[in-house]
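thread from #wetlab-drylab

HS: before we spend reagent money on co-crystallization trials with adenosine-5'-triphosphate, can we at least see a predicted complex? here's what I'd submit
DV: go for it
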Amino acid sequence: MSSKIILTGDRPTGRLHIGHYVGSLRNRVAIQNAGDYAKMFVFIADAQALTDNFDNPEKVRQNIIEVALDYLSVGLDPDKVTLFIQSQIPELTELTFYYMNLVTVARLQRNPTVKTEIQMRGFSAEGEEQAFGSGLPVGFFCYPISQAADITAFKATDVPVGEDQKPMIEQSVEIVRAFNRIYGETLVEPKAVLPSNEACLRLPGIDGKAKMSKSLGNCIYLSETAEEMHKKVMSMYTDPLHINLSDPGHIEGNTVFTYLDAFCRDEHFGLFWPEYANLDELKDHYRKGGLGDVKCKKFLEKILNAELEPVRARRKEFEKDIPAVYDILKKGSLAAEEVAAKTLDDVKKAMKIDYFNDADLIREQAARFNM
Ligand code: ATP
Ligand code: MG
């Protein structure tokens, strides 16, 4: 049996989109179905979402169920995977506090993902006089440390994530190494599991922007209806130089083709567009000219519908019994806490702060004071 421990999470800042799907969710379901793991944890990162949504707890609270429904509808199975809510595991906060000693401010400032996200959210490191106006909250700044706590609490070995999360895993590895060096071998080094297909590393938004992201409003959501998705696909960014049908087209930076790279398989041509044998043939024709964007978009729409229709149908079923979904999360959170508590015990023992369990310490001191 595999010894892999798999862990990942998503922020409940909105419904999940097809970027999450190709970047991480699809991988998780594949691992689950292949059974190639010892334990698998998937969690809703509400405490992390609060680091930049601290003034909007209602948004976070409402999106817990959305993310849980998305998990279940893509096929994560609560009998095989522990689904839990981050804030319900207090051990994670405690671990974060101890790991803070192992990371410098300069190191966090160098983290490329933190840098981009600070910019995206309009936080300013110098904005302290504006207090919570646009100043950078310490909690947000430290979220890579809390992510290391999430990963190490479960002794995760494999973390399926999109490319933007790579620096976070590197940060976690550094924390693990520092901890083990100072306090003795205790924590397990994780590794990022990235999608093998390049288009999936960081799926762009329908507007062609670098990343499909809830915060940028350029998403196709997993739970979207076929009608909503149709509008979005038809409005997608393509090649601005491809004006007349006969003009040669460009594939690079053309969102429709990036999505085809992420979703299209050869069998889709047999099903929906038998004029071509595979994506390379379609691309060649587009490059030469004479192939319209609308035709390509319609093909993409058919592929997306084929992939998402079963997801939508499963969601409808789970939506009928919301209390049952909360029950799954509650059971998962209780099971997850047991595991995290065990790791926290190990950590406290290694850090020599397990006073009441340390019979030697008490005996030695009793002897010293009564010599
Ligand atoms: P937010 O804007 O609130 O940060 P987000 O859309 O970036 O939301 P996260 O919850 O931060 O979503 O990301 C969850 C997981 O999905 C991470 O592993 C991340 O790498 C992956 N992911 C998110 N967006 C994409 C994308 N466009 N392409 C590939 N993977 C993605
Ligand atoms: Mg994000």
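DV: Residues 10-11, 13, 19-20, 23-24, 161-162, 164-165, 202-203, 211-215 surround adenosine-5'-triphosphate (ligand 1) (CB under 6 Å).
HS: ok that's useful, forwarding to the group
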